[in-house]
Design brief:
Layout (H helix, E strand, L loop, with lengths): L8 H10 L4 E7 H4 L3 H8 L5 E6 L3 E7 L12 E9 L7 E12 L2 E5 L5 E5 L4 E4 L1 H6 L7 E3 L2 E8 L5 H22 L11 E6 L6 H13 L18 E8 L6 E8 L16 H5 L7 E2 L23 E9 L8 H16 L3 E7 L17 H4 L2 H10 L6 E3 L11 H24 L12
Parallel strand pairs: 11-13, 11-15, 15-16, 16-17
Antiparallel strand pairs: 1-10, 2-3, 2-10, 3-4, 4-5, 5-6, 6-7, 7-8, 8-9, 12-13, 12-14
Helix pairs in contact: 5-11, 6-11
């Protein structure tokens, strides 16, 4: 009879992706192979990297070990990843990279980290022992000693035998999770507006619509293609679109919106008319407005809107530029970008630059995923944008949008989320500096 795992298909895929598209092969299952620690270690010896998975009533806890069981017992630290997740909520996996001493003694399998974390399996009694430190750091809702339903051990194939790579991969996934949580909790400064609107502008084909699709993909947990994208010489986007972002976990609409505009063109009477920009910034232009490259918006068209709601105003302008062509922008294109920038400044709106099509996401952020590396900030594209638009280096952001990928990638997500977080910080800076009426609300433009 074939021995099958207790993990659901989704849970198994989440664990495989935790280590970079690995594959799991079930070696040991306590309910089938028995509760002897000797049988457990013998079955799993000389199998290479393994993953021990402990099934509790509501949660799953486990440890990945890069080195094999063959040399147990040993006091030499092993390369390990500790993890946990709630059943039916596997995207919310908690994981951390830890050098771990793994030993077998008194019929128990023990995982001990130098940071005071302790996880012990007692197969003969089907019990899992956890100290308070590991319960807290893995965000578990269990007792120190818990009866487990099943213990399974898998062979892990298809991963790099490189502790540094595994550490960065796991750390990236955890940093991504923190970024998503922080952005889910975001609220505009002092709740002065109910939602923060970010305008995406840039040359045709620079990746404005793709950036929206990428942001939506991250929050939905799967690749999304709501905005139509393409590589035509003329702008694919013909309408002004105001996109809301829904949280795939709660289903709630998040308090920020991305406003997609027609691409800028160097050709006369083509692309977005930059005289339309002030109307967009002030909130007069409705969703799905059809742009006319041959004529600017006529103010009388919106006479029925005497004063748009404060929430409809743009709070940040993001200049979206292809990193592969930003160094060769024509004088006409640069002049258009500068004109838009001046319009934003006149309206008290902050702005950032978003460089798309970054080749190597791993080299953009430092080991803590907090700052752009010196290698990234010294690139000619960043320097040129800084000089061209006088935008601070901290507001020049680098991303790789989702295009041909089939699954979400942690490093791509981190760059996308980091860029969005900085845009919202610019929004809050602008709101904090905006004049208020006596009643504490934003003054009209």
């Amino acid at each position: 009879m074939e021995v099958t795992t207790r993990l659901t298909w989704i849970e198994e895929k989440i664990l495989e992706n935790l280590l970079g598209k690995a594959s799991l092969t079930l070696l040991y299952k306590s309910s089938v192979h028995g509760s002897s620690i000797f049988r457990m270690t013998k079955t799993c010896s000389h199998q290479g990297a393994t993953m021990t998975v402990v099934h509790l009533n509501e949660e799953v806890v486990g440890v990945f070990m890069l080195e094999c069981f063959s040399s147990l017992p040993s006091e030499k630290p092993r390369t390990c990843v500790w993890f946990s997740f709630e059943r039916n909520n596997s995207p919310g996996i908690s994981a951390l990279f830890l050098d771990t001493v793994v030993t077998v003694s008194n019929e128990q399998l023990k995982f001990l980290s130098p940071y005071g974390l302790s996880l012990t399996l007692d197969p003969s009694k089907c019990k899992l022992h956890l100290n308070n430190a590991v319960i807290k750091i893995l965000d578990l809702n269990v007792k120190n000693i818990s009866q487990y339903l099943e213990c399974e051990i898998f062979r892990v194939d298809g991963i790099k035998n490189d502790p540094g790579f595994i550490k960065r991969l796991v750390t990236a996934k955890q940093h991504r999770r923190k970024l998503v949580s922080a952005l889910r909790a975001y609220r505009p400064y002092e709740d002065l507006v109910s939602e923060a609107r970010i305008l995406l502008v840039g040359p045709v084909g620079s990746g404005k619509s793709s950036f929206f699709n990428s942001v939506k993909s991250v929050f939905q947990g799967h690749l999304a293609r709501q905005a139509i994208v393409g590589s035509d010489e003329s702008s694919i986007t013909k309408q002004y679109r105001i996109y809301s972002i829904k949280d795939g976990k709660s289903g709630k609409t998040l308090p920020f919106m991305l406003c997609d505009s027609m691409g800028l063109s160097e050709r006369e009477e083509a692309g977005l008319c930059i005289d339309d920009i002030p109307h967009i910034l002030k909130g007069y232009v409705p969703d799905r407005y059809q742009f006319n490259p041959h004529a600017a918006i006529q103010a009388k068209r919106f006479t029925h809107v005497t004063s748009p709601p404060l929430k409809d105003r743009i709070r940040c302008v993001a200049f979206v530029l292809d990193s592969n062509s930003v160094n060769t922008l024509s004088d006409k294109m640069v002049a258009k970008l500068k004109k838009i920038q001046q319009d934003a400044v006149d309206c008290g709106i902050g702005h950032v630059a978003l460089l798309t099509n970054v080749n190597d996401c791993d080299k953009v952020l430092d080991d803590n995923f907090l700052n752009m590396t010196e290698c990234a900030t010294s690139q000619s594209q960043v320097k040129n944008v800084h000089t061209m638009l006088n935008i601070p280096i901290s507001n020049i952001l680098m991303v790789r949008n989702y295009a041909s990928e089939r699954t979400l990638e942690p490093m791509m997500d981190i760059l996308i989320l980091t860029a969005l977080r900085q845009m919202l910080r610019v929004v809050d800076d602008a709101l904090e500096d905006f004049p208020l009426e006596d009643n504490g609300t934003l003054a009209p433009l």
